[in-house]
Amino acid sequence: MAFNHLPAGVHDALAPLSVTPVTHSVPMAKNHRSDRSPTDHATRLPPGMLLDRLASGPSRAARITHTEHLPPRAGRHAVWPDRIRPEVVAAVQACGIEHPWAHQARVAEHALDGDSVVVATGTASGKSLAYLVPVLSTLLDGSEAPNGRGATALYLAPTKALAADQCRAVRDLARPLGTAVRPAVYDGDTPVEEREWIRQYGTYVLTNPDMLHRGILPSHPRWSSFLRALKYVVIDECHTYRGVFGSHVAQVLRRLRRLCARYGASPAFLLASATAAEPAVAARRLTGLPVVEVADDASPRGELVFALWEPPLTELQGEKGAPVRRPATAETADLLTDLTLQGVRSVAFVRSRRGAELISVIAQERLKEIDRPLARRVAAYRGGYLPEERRALERALHTGELLGLSATTALELGVDVSGLDAVLIAGYPGTRASLWQQAGRAGRAGQGALAVLVARDDPLDTFLVHHPEALFDRPVESTVLDPDNPYVLAPHLCAAAAELPLTEEDIDLFGPACAELLPQLEAAKLLRRRTKAWHWTRRERAADLTDIRGEGGRPVQIVEAGTGRLLGTVDEAASHTSVHEGAVHLHQGRTYLVRSLDLDDSVALVEEANPPYTTVARDTTSISVLETDVEIPWGDGRLCYGSVEVTNQVVSFLRRRVITGEVLGETKLDLPPRTLRTRAVWWTVTEDQLDEARINPEILGGALHAAEHASIGMLPLFATCDRWDIGGVSIPLHPDTLLPTVFVYDGHPGGAGFAERAFHTARAWLTATREAIASCECDAGCPSCIQSPKCGNGNDPLHKRGAVRLLTVLLKGAPPEADGKPEPEKEGEA
Fold first, then answer.
1. What's the CA angle centered on 266, arms 263 and 272, to 5 degrees?
2. Quick one: which of 173, 299, 380, 743 could link to 682 by a disulfide (CB 3.0–4.6 Å)?
């Protein structure tokens, strides 16, 4: 039997509520800040005092395991380059910004010189203004050209929310410049009647990589005048383009550069990120161009108090009688309630859509008991909402109408919510880069801010709240992407050929793997060579061959059965676990039961209900080795890296009581299996090593399974991923290795670089895994060490002590160079 751990999961169930709101009196004062609603009734408290109030009470103070104080910093001014149009400088000054920060002036200088440049300074350091000033100045120059359209610029954001927010900012800034700057959002939500105007007259078009891939590039003749005049491509939050998604975006940008060259344009790329390691190297991998780095942050910063918070153990018992901590969702909802009662503008970030809904529901219910009008000022924000719902929530947050928001990472990136006092982070978001992005949402107006990381019942979260140096003394992760991944490159070569026939001159642009893939695409009859060019041969759109976010398939629509009303959507890849027949679905505080899931028509029919339970999908996984690229002896055992095929099937779901988590029953499901060809790292042990570790056949499966779970939970410390990006399988006798084997694999077709990072840092990674298990205070294993929230086998069997002994023996054989061994430099990885 194989024990599995898949890159799709389930989330915290609602735990018993025992909210004790902070009862300190709050000074009543009229607040004249423009970023607050007139109904706010609290003065802005210093972050240290705010944390003290949250931690008041007999049990709460003990939940803070560490507090980090980041001191304030003074700013350094400069002057704008002389080449910036005076009208643009005047518009900036009208917004209250007399002089730029030094890094803003440097970015503007490089942009005006036509250099591609990446600005990698802290959150709220004015990166947007750094690239907007030269862009607006160039657009203004272009408007005076005697012939033609003048200059244009393209802005790419990873989320629709960020593009919409930036469009508002550009319109406000450019209003004094007249009609020379015509910003417009062009994405899937843009009405059809507006699209032709944008193509013909828009000078600053804001979109996302998905729309560029599927909509703009395949229709480039209709965009010819825009592309011919393109001077700048702005890539905001560029650190988000990592893994498979980043590799796809890298190829989309190469396609864009190719078409721009066809129309005689060679735009400069302006990239921005608050959390990037080796930003120039990462930007070069992404764009394929030399990029200048500006990373000396000259902006001022207010004080940041960052607390690590561990929820308490409850009297409840989980699977196999394991102790259970209060879920991070319930704990975060308590804190959001307390902050709202004090008039503190806050955002609570949570990883899952369901978690975002739960936090808002719990906070609203508690607020109704104390101050009913306040309950209306807390809401949830997540992907899958309809466009009009998202825009309304963004406006309400921006104006201060909303006081508290529970959000997924859909709101993490760059959205200007100046005036926030506090950020709550329900569970480690997977990378230090994302952690600092979320924490940086507070204090964006330069004031002091509070950030609180609330640990989940998870081995990595438990490790981090007790090892703060792993968060605060280490830099953000390197950005891993591999544009040469054949699973990524092949569909983009087809898309490029459909846009313009491919020639041998294009091989250098798309990378060395291009020459190897073209004959294979010919053999597959996707491309046909005529004279010196390769042509797309099919009637269907080549851009539809791939989903650049790796989600695959069209989104499943969630429809209310009785009314036909569209509630939202869910990615096809997640539909098997989240909207299967009988699943509980939450949407803006309402609970629905899924009546049916039609995979052919991509529709899930739901009906409103109020069941006393939540649902958790169960699945099975098998894995086979396709090719072993590298194999290293670890004593008698082996550490390997290579290609694998993973087969997964959702087979049932559990119904769990909302309050206690008690399992009420299991229902079988009949869903089709899925296969995934990807990259994996795996290790084996021999009979002699098992004897040395005192592992008998009765506990072997549990020891391997426990080691697998914990190693997946710890890998995000060593690779730019989170545990939902990776999967694992452990088996006492694998048919390909003929030995007890543990696999950890990338949850994306073709791989994403995470397993490769694990291979190159295996000694440090597995040492931290062993330490996390051994140091946990539980007796037989718990969610803080070896139990997984997404285990397809219900965390059975698991053997904590056996896992520690097994990893101890395995690590004894690890070669010294396995710790910190430098990774070979390869094109497409940074």
1. 130
2. 743
**Of 428, 424, 412, 473, residue with least CA distance to 451:** 424
* Strand residues in 658-714 grouped as ranges (E): 663-668, 674-684
The letter for the amino acid at 161 is A
Instruction: Yes or no: say if 709 and 459 are a contact pair by the CB < 8 Å rule.
Output: yes
Beta strands in 17-172 (DSSP E): 64-70, 117-119, 152-156
Model confidence over 673-711: pLDDT tens digits?
989 999 999 999 999 999 999 999 999 999 999 999 999
Give the C-alpha separation, 444 to 447, whole Å: 7
Does position 200 have pLDDT exceeding 70, yes or no? yes
**CATH level 2 (architecture), domain 47-66+310-473:** 3-Layer(aba) Sandwich (3.40)
Tokens of 228: 């011919």
Phi, psi of 693 (to 5 degrees): -85, 0
Tell me the pLDDT tens digit for each residue of 60-104.
888 999 999 998 888 999 999 999 999 999 999 998 899 999 999
Pick 86-294's CATH classification: 3.40.50.1980, 2.50.20.10, 1.10.565.10, 3.40.50.300.
3.40.50.300
Return residue ranges of the chain for CATH 3.40.50.300: 47-66+310-473, 86-294
The two three-digit tokens of residue 527, written as one number: 């491309």
Q: For residue 709, give Cα distances in angstroms to 620, 773, 788.
A: 15, 10, 6
Whole-angstrom distance, CA of residue 747 vs CA of residue 797: 23
Instruction: List, in order, residues 6 or more apart from 514 with CB less than 8 Å away.
Output: 489, 493, 506, 507
- Please tell me the total number of residues recorded for the chain in this structure: 830
